């Protein structure tokens, strides 16, 4: 991951606080945005269309401009975005998709829900992203796609993965759910292959107040197919051969439309996204400065060398620590929220038992699940709260707690 240099914002005069530090809250920032949110919501109410309406289209246009994507398709969750993207890319029953063994469960279940077969590969221990060498070893005659995941603050090695996909005639699809704002040599995450996705789950860098997601792509065919799939297989150029008919279902689709109230919230927050990204970077720098010499903190977010310039964005501040579970209990006892990303690697999840994987198959993924923990990181977090979190971690290890 990326170590952000300290900036002047880290020195904000904000004394340590003794109260609880939630893992996530947006109470303050949302209150500040409320007048703008309400104005957008009033427009939705006045129009009287609450799903897949004008506000969604407005948000899609704004997000396309922000990311540089030619096409943005708003849907009701990041998970559905993955499923529909895989289907729009032509995944057929039984096709294999190579995914990392360390990720949120939706990375792999989306393949299953699109009627494909997930095939796991181990990760790079420093970036937590799929290791291109391990991905290459997983390719078989049935492999159709490779789906890297951009986790926590930086992108996977897209140069190596793109070369691998081209060499073997595979589709490159990005699980960029966490990656808004991340760019590879100027190109936004999700736009380096056939397409990618964004999740707007409330904790995300750009978060809604419920579930929402989007598909990003520069491919018009993928975009048109995804637009049809999200609306029961209707709409788009798929109906050009049936003039005068607007409700004919030409492909089996689903109901995965973004609702306009979520689009209203996202539009209001999109205008402040750059500030939110910078605030997260400043907070990450504060953590790095304070935890650099703490015994028991074994790894802080560090940059992984890539062949081109990349733009990291801190969605999660993930550290590797000694005696992780005891530390999280200690922090919880003192009112500090944490999150484990991820407690069980994908290949050991019960729902994939039939794939035949077992313990020891992907040691880097399994190790990450044992020692990593995410600390609070969101724009409402104060430097005083960072001080409190870091002081508690230092105290935990200074008291000889299995450092």
TrEMBL record:
<dbReference type="InterPro" id="IPR015421">
    <property type="entry name" value="PyrdxlP-dep_Trfase_major"/>
</dbReference>
<comment type="similarity">
    <text>Belongs to the DegT/DnrJ/EryC1 family.</text>
</comment>
<keyword id="KW-0808">Transferase</keyword>
<protein>
    <submittedName>
        <fullName>DegT/DnrJ/EryC1/StrS family aminotransferase</fullName>
    </submittedName>
</protein>
<dbReference type="GO" id="GO:0008483">
    <property type="term" value="F:transaminase activity"/>
</dbReference>
<keyword id="KW-0032">Aminotransferase</keyword>
<dbReference type="InterPro" id="IPR015424">
    <property type="entry name" value="PyrdxlP-dep_Trfase"/>
</dbReference>
<keyword id="KW-0663">Pyridoxal phosphate</keyword>
<dbReference type="Pfam" id="PF01041">
    <property type="entry name" value="DegT_DnrJ_EryC1"/>
</dbReference>
<dbReference type="InterPro" id="IPR015422">
    <property type="entry name" value="PyrdxlP-dep_Trfase_small"/>
</dbReference>
<dbReference type="InterPro" id="IPR000653">
    <property type="entry name" value="DegT/StrS_aminotransferase"/>
</dbReference>
């Amino acid at each position: 991951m990326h170590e952000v240099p300290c900036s002047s914002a880290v020195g904000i005069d904000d004394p340590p606080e003794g109260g609880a530090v939630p893992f996530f809250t947006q109470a303050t920032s949302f209150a500040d945005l409320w007048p703008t949110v309400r104005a957008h919501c009033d427009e939705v109410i006045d129009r009287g269309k609450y799903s897949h309406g004008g506000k969604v289209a407005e948000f899609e246009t704004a997000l396309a401009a922000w990311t540089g994507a030619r096409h943005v398709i708003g849907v009701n969750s990041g998970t559905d975005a993955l499923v529909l993207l895989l289907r729009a890319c032509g995944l057929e029953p039984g096709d294999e998709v190579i995914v990392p063994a360390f990720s949120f469960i939706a990375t792999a279940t989306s393949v299953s829900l699109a009627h494909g077969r997930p095939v796991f590969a181990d990760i790079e221990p420093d970036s937590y992203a799929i290791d291109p060498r391990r991905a290459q070893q997983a390719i078989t005659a049935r492999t159709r796609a490779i789906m890297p995941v951009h986790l926590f603050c930086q992108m996977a090695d897209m140069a190596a993965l793109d070369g691998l996909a081209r060499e073997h005639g595979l589709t490159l699809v990005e699980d960029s759910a966490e990656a808004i704002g991340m760019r590879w040599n100027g190109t936004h995450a999700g736009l380096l292959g056939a397409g990618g996705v964004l999740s707007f789950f409330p904790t995300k860098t750009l978060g809604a107040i419920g579930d929402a997601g989007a598909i990003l792509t520069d491919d018009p065919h993928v975009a048109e197919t995804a637009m049809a799939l999200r609306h029961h297989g209707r709409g788009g150029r798929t109906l050009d051969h049936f003039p005068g008919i607007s409700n004919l279902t030409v492909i089996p689709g689903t109901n995965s439309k973004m609702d306009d109230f979520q689009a209203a919230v996202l539009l209001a927050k999109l205008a402040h996204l750059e500030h939110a990204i910078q605030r997260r970077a400043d907070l990450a720098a504060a953590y790095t400065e304070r935890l650099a010499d703490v015994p028991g903190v074994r790894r802080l977010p560090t940059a992984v060398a890539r062949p081109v310039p990349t733009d990291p964005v801190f969605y999660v501040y993930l550290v590797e620590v000694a005696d992780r579970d005891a530390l999280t209990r200690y922090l919880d006892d003192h009112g500090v929220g944490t999150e484990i990303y991820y407690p069980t690697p994908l290949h050991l999840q019960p729902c994939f038992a039939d794939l035949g994987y077992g313990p020891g198959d992907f040691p880097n993924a399994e190790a990450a699940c044992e020692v990593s923990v995410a600390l609070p990181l969101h724009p409402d977090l104060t430097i005083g709260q960072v001080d409190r979190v870091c002081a508690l971690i230092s105290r935990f290890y200074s008291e000889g707690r299995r450092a």
